[in-house]
Amino acid sequence: MASDKSVYATTAKPRPIRVPKLHHATFMTMEIDPMVRFYEAVCGLQPVFYSEHAAWLTNDEANHRIALLRIPGTKPPVDKPHTAGLHHTAFEYPDFDAWLDNYVRLRDAGIRPAFCMDHGMTMSIYYADPDGNGIEIQVDNFHDWGKSTEWMWASREFSEDQLGPQFDPDKLVAAREAGLDHDEIHRRAYAGEYRPAVEVPNPAFPDIWAQKIAANPALLDGVPLPEGA
Predict the structure, then answer these.
(1) What is the mean pLDDT of the chain?
(2) Is 167 exposed, middle or buried (0-12, 13-18, 19+ CB in 10 A)?
(3) Which of 86, 134, 166, 192 to pair with 128, CA 20 to 30 A apart?
(4) CATH classification of 83-206, choosing from 3.30.720.110, 3.40.50.11590, 3.30.70.100, 3.10.580.10?
């Protein structure tokens, strides 16, 4: 005879009643200051605590969203763009104009993206931080997480292509100056109208460590251990 009891009465609780939410990401680094300057410029993250060996940064009400640790013994990565591990972290703007204005501000400050893609649910600009970690700055194309989630789950387009076309962000800037709105620019970008002259294969973030080590071979020794260790 089948039991009329619920699964919660007959088995251990499958998960917490209140699920946790993503709070922060932590990076090991060999230099704190360049990373702090990058994340402040690109994402508006400011240090809550900042020292030579660690920093905790936030851009909202949380006590931190990014942590940076300069741990003794840390060494440079090998072939970072092509090894397993974290690919990128992402930050979202609430509207298209703020998102594109941020690109223009960074471009004019000499900070250029590694590649840009219209994924369908988002338009996304990807940067590499000073350690070669990927950072995505995105805007939702549906103006609503529920709608973009449904599109990812149910659309034929996303089932066939989870990346979407690359785009040249300066072409988006020109399109906006010509009077096109977010929806029309997204439609054209997703159709491939704003592709860059040269696309990034795969796409992959640049491998910056060979150049950094060539300029400073002492990096291969890693972050120095404390005296007497």
Answers:
(1) 93
(2) buried
(3) 192
(4) 3.30.720.110
